[in-house]
Automatic annotation (TrEMBL):
Protein name: ABC transporter permease
Key words of the record: Cell membrane, Membrane, Transmembrane, Transmembrane helix
GO CC, alphabetical: plasma membrane
Top-level lineage group: Bacteria
């Protein structure tokens, strides 16, 4: 039963908007009555009635009319400002909550885009790949970032896709200048093609010749200023490792913070004289290799050729079946977030964390926006009479919607300004937590400005459109009489938003508790060695002859218990060595150390005996007539299918030299707990790269002072620099530690924002039900009954949020824990604690307003009735 469409269209075309609703309603009412008797007559009469209204007094003006929009919007802003001042508590909750949410979102965005920008500043970034080594023995696959020395020259010879390449060997060095000594960890050996492959800007010097001869070095701007001040350093020399004189041939800009390749000094590769680095080989991987391809996207074609090539190489090296060695390629721009291998140039991040923080940033913003929308819609009924009056004097629905949206945009803009100020204030602390040098430059990029404006518009439109749409539909007469009810129309939305807020907050709290449990597990897990109270000193070959004297002098101090020397610290050992027994061959992780290593580290021998002085002498002799004494861990012994007792006395070929197993030690962790324990070898040899000093843990400052004094007496050419072994261990989990701190901060903010919104909503609901509470008190309702009346609906929503959040939190944390070979189990304790925390905070948030409403004098609340 519809009136003629053309007649309706014609009426709407010519009729004035202020008359259209009334005329159309009257015509429809008559049409329905006539339609029951004669449909044809009803349609005819409707059409003729429309034509009768086609008179000047009902026709709208078709001339262009420029409304006084400026005055209208001035009125909107004036009334909006008065509303903000009249309801200060709600205004503060709205603006402050939104500002915090926007600030958290922007800070997270700064971190996310900083992580995504790693290594993309290179001109050839889309053509550079990193070569990594993958090897397997007995089905155990190991992937490391370092490669053998043969990879770069061989790939350039064999594969036409490779245009150039670079090797990097971060050796570190002791640099002497003007009678001062400095330990430079950023001393890196590299090929002369370095500046051709990478886009590090050379400020002084020739990029083609700066590194093409032995004993040449390029300094960063910071290093040049450190050693020479404002003087030009080109052509001057620096003494390195108390032996080589390096000529400075260039000055390069400092490495950007978003580069995983970092250095302070670049030395020419030809300066290396040790055969380990000058002899081409696939094994004994110790440096990093980057390849420059001719065209972007060629790494997939090159990767497809590598397996066939290395299958032939494996045959030459007597590797087959589950035992193999190959090279994998990884785009440069994926290295930071998708390391996938052990031992990169610097600790990488994980793309999963980028996703996690993107989701968290969005969730925090959703919580803040939900607060704003919730309170705005809830308080819309207070504006009902204003809307009714505006409609009475001729305001159109679109004008009312425009008014509410304008006011909403004002609030959101104020929150955005405060949020940006919070970002500026919190950025230094946030940079410290994340370990990244974050700046606000990203926020000034066009895409960032677009995102900020989009956030402002979306929240502003949502906060203004819904309440204005609801109120604009009410009949003015009913509104002005007080005959309206907005509670039913918005209750579902408000409940849904509250549930969403607490689901997000409880998921964050659960995740924080699980991460904390895992980090405690890592700290307390038995590693197979004792990491506490060990001081790590950095030495070099120059103190080899003085090492017995230094040991003797240091051990005279009763606070010092044991001392050992080794080529690497045992916390994280990425290097691999070739080990063979008869026809079985494998790559194995290992450490070169003296006879006191096992005792100093507190390792447990489960077969054989500790190294002796006689065995140490034979190891240092470097002769094929004597066996080199070695120890295996239990996993290595099992790889050869030996028991610890059977392994003792076995003769192996290790690094091309006959070696005898003198003992088997219990498994210990020499890498992070992300990886399971793999085969390991301890071999004796002359090395003073690292000196490990076990102390009692008492009188630490005095002990360190004693060590420094004796060090300066016996090794004045080396700076005394120390670090504690447990600090090195903690650095392995810096990413997880930062994640835990950020989750903790976001969890606090999430539950804080949720409760802030809950506080505002409970306060409003208590005010709305003031008369109801007064009547209930007069009729004898108890304080407990009134508190439950006002609280139970909200607490039910918290319980519902709990039922949704717990499975979500369990799923997310189980996925995260899968990245650890050794992990905690997720128990009910984390969920119970999350519920207790959330329920308690929510109850305390509501209690003040609920009790205040319940204790109010009913005479005051009912005096207007």
């Amino acid at each position: 039963m519809q009136p003629p469409r053309k007649a309706v269209a014609f009426l709407r075309w010519f009729c004035r908007e202020d008359c259209l609703e009334e005329i159309e309603g009257d015509l429809m009412e008559v049409f329905k009555k006539e339609y029951e008797n004669s449909p044809l007559k009803a349609k005819w009469k409707y059409t003729t009635s429309v034509m009768k209204y086609f008179r000047p007094e009902f026709m709208k003006s078709f001339k262009h009319h420029q409304p006084r929009t400026l005055g209208m919007y001035q009125s909107y802003f004036k009334i909006g400002w008065r509303n903000l001042l009249r309801n200060k508590s709600y205004s503060i909750i709205n603006i402050l909550g939104l500002a915090i949410g926007i600030a958290c979102c922007l800070l997270s965005s700064l971190y996310i885009f900083h992580e995504l920008s790693y290594d993309r500043f290179h001109k050839n970034a889309n053509r550079i790949v990193r070569a990594t080594t993958e090897f397997s023995y007995g089905g155990k696959v190991t992937k490391v970032a370092v490669t053998g020395t043969k990879v770069l020259p061989e790939f350039k010879r064999v594969f036409p896709e490779v245009e150039s390449g670079v090797r990097l060997f971060p050796a570190g060095a002791v640099v002497a200048h003007d009678d001062k000594l400095f330990r430079e960890q950023g001393f890196v050996y590299t090929d002369s093609s370095f500046f051709n492959v990478f886009s590090f800007h050379l400020l002084e010097g020739n990029p083609r010749t700066a590194l093409n001869r032995p004993d040449q070095v390029v300094l960063t701007v910071s290093m040049a200023k450190k050693y020479f001040g404002d003087k030009t350093p080109l052509g001057k020399t620096l003494q390195v490792n108390n032996s080589q004189e390096f000529v400075i041939t260039g000055i390069v800009e400092d490495c950007p913070p978003n580069s995983q390749i970092k250095f302070d000094m670049l030395a020419s590769w030809s300066s290396l004289t040790d055969p380990v680095y000058t002899t081409e080989g696939w094994f004994d991987a110790s440096h990093y290799t980057y390849l420059l391809l001719h065209k972007p996207g060629m790494h997939e074609a090159l990767s497809s050729k590598i397996p066939a090539y290395f299958k032939a190489q494996d045959a030459k090296n007597d590797l087959s079946g589950e035992n193999y060695l190959t090279i994998r390629l990884q785009p440069l721009t994926d290295v930071h977030l998708r390391a996938l291998v052990e031992g990169g140039l610097e600790p990488g991040s994980d793309y999963r964390y980028v996703y996690i923080f993107s989701i968290i940033a969005l969730f925090i913003l959703i919580i803040a926006a939900a607060n704003y929308i919730n309170l705005t819609t809830a308080r819309a009924s207070d504006r009902a009479k204003e809307v009714g009056l505006r409609k009475t004097v001729g305001a159109l629905p679109r004008q009312l919607i425009g008014q509410f949206i304008s006011e909403s945009l004002v609030v959101v803009t104020a929150a955005l300004i405060i949020g940006l100020l919070l970002v500026a204030a919190l950025m230094p602390a946030f940079s410290t937590i994340t370990g990244r040098q974050l700046t606000g430059n990203f926020l000034m990029k066009p895409e960032s400005l677009f995102a900020i404006v989009a956030i402002l518009l979306v929240i502003g439109l949502l906060g203004g459109f819904y309440p204005s749409l609801v109120l604009s539909r009410f009949a003015p007469a009913n509104v002005l009489k007080g005959n309206f009810n907005t509670r039913a129309s918005g209750i579902t939305l408000r409940k849904s938003l509250i549930v969403i807020q607490f689901v997000i907050s409880m998921t964050l709290i659960t995740s924080t508790l699980v991460i904390h449990s895992q980090m405690e597990f890592i700290q307390n897990k038995k590693l197979g060695y004792q990491k506490d109270h060990i001081v790590v000193l950095r030495g070099d070959r120059s103190i080899t002859e003085k090492m017995p004297t230094l040991k003797s002098v240091l051990l005279d101090n009763t606070e010092i218990q044991n001392i050992t020397t080794c080529n690497q610290t045992p916390v994280f050992i990425p290097g691999k060595y070739n080990l063979a027994f008869n026809d079985q061959e494998m790559l194995i992780t290992g450490i070169r150390a003296d006879k006191d290593f096992v005792k100093t580290m507190g390792l447990t021998i489960i077969g054989g005996t500790d190294f002796t002085e006689a065995e140490e002498a034979s190891a240092f002799a470097r002769t094929d007539t004597l066996y080199r004494p070695v120890m295996l861990n239990e996993t290595a012994a099992r790889s050869f299918e030996w028991t610890p007792e059977e392994a003792v006395g076995k003769v192996l070929t290790f690094q091309g030299r006959r070696s005898m197993v003198t003992a088997v030690v219990d498994d210990f962790h020499f890498s992070s707990l992300h990886e399971s324990i793999s085969p390991f070898i301890i071999f004796m040899g002359s090395t003073t790269n690292w000196i490990l000093v076990r102390t009692s843990g008492n009188h630490v400052p005095e002990t360190l002072h004693y060590m420094a004094t004796k060090w300066n007496e016996l090794a004045p050419h080396l700076p005394f620099e120390y670090e504690f072994l447990d600090d090195q261990f903690n650095k392995l989990y810096s990413a997880e530690s930062k994640t835990g701190k950020l989750f903790y901060a976001f969890a606090i903010l999430g539950i804080g924002l949720a409760c802030l919104g809950l506080f505002g909503l409970v306060t409003f609901m208590a005010q709305q039900r003031t008369k109801e509470i007064g009547i209930r008190k007069i009729l004898g309702s108890s304080l407990y009954g009134l508190i439950m009346l006002l609280s139970k609906d909200f607490l039910k929503l918290v319980v519902l949020a709990t039922l949704i959040a717990f499975p979500l939190g369990w799923w997310a944390m189980d996925r995260w824990l899968q990245g650890f070979a050794y992990r905690v189990s997720i128990h009910g304790m984390e969920f119970t604690l999350t519920f207790v925390i959330t329920f308690t905070i929510a109850s305390l948030t509501m209690s003040a307003q609920v009790i205040k409403a319940a204790l109010a004098n009913p005479a005051k609340s009912l005096r207007t009735e």
